[in-house]
Amino acid sequence: MDLDVSQPAHVVGHSVLRADLGVGGRHIVVLSGIARPEWKIDDDSAHREVCRLRLREPAGTVEQSTVHVGLASIGNDDTEFVFATDQASVEVDEAGELVLITHLALMGEPSTLNRFSYQVVLTTRVVASEITGTISWPTAWFRPPLPGPAGVSGIFSILANERTVTPGGPPFGGEVEHLRPVTPGEIVSVTVAEDTCRATYRIAEPPKGRQLRVTVEQSGLRGPGNVSVGTVSPAADILTLSVAQPSAVIDFHATSVRVA
Known about the structure:
Mean pLDDT: 89
Radius of gyration: 26 Å
Structural class: mainly beta
Helix content: under 10%
Number of helices: 0
Distance between the termini: 60 Å
Order of helices and strands: EEEEEEEEEEEEEEEEE
Strand content: over 45%
């Protein structure tokens, strides 16, 4: 049984209180609301379900937590019944967001467990995500006129894109890649040598738990042919960040292909 606070039909009265504790990126978070499983059975045997409620709250690392759930709205047609919230806990999914796990029980002919209330109080430590790396190119193709990031202003466009694929149609089949820009990057430093220039970039807080492709477009390098910017390995720019692995390093370099 999957519910989501972003769906009005799944939850009512969801609220969040967050306060910075001021030490080591720690926060205290209080979440409360009423979940709407709308679970109905017609049986004199007890049924059990696990309800997963996505709270859509970034948590990072949970250090301490308390969870309280309780029945809020139930119904029975004057028969023997069971209504229970047997167990509740929180976990952090791969995207670094909180999920409330509640074990429910129900019996009756018929019985309906319409709603249950919840309150989650926890202390968390923020786990920041980032993608860093370098972009290199021959100095002869472009020598920055100014030191630092200002010297390459407007030359590079750096993006972390959410990547999805769909089946390709005939006649070739395969997969079709779709990229949706989610987080831009920025140049943080530049070094210039006689042969090679190198810019260091950073993408701050790209989303966790989604497959990403990092792209770099250029509009200022003048090589002997068509210039493009890519990685050494074709798939090195595809990644998925998580709380356990919140950062990645991807290096790019410029190449030129002569036009016949």
